[in-house]
Predict the structure.
Amino acid sequence: MENWKWPVNIWSPLWLRSQGNPYVSTTTPFGLEEMHASSLIDHNWLSWRFGIMNQILNQGDTQVIQNMSLLIIADDDTHVWQFTSNGNYSVRSSYYHIMESMLSNDIYKVEGDW
């Protein structure tokens, strides 16, 4: 299976690490609808690009983003499936996740330090 990657759009839901609200609350500026989160990072200095953030985001969104730690990685932004060890989504992994969450498997668990 190929390793699919999708850049994370700044305006897409659920990427901010804010208590109770993972959404960007800033209105999307015209012409920046396809801007990616990696555009907010200075890749040479491995730091946030505060000037750009202050120009396009409201103060609350800017503060939340600035408080997020940057990982020093060379890969593009990606979506990952948290229910597999490799992060790739499959119908099979989704099925197993649904079955695990819907059906109790406590009777198969064995007590002890494993």
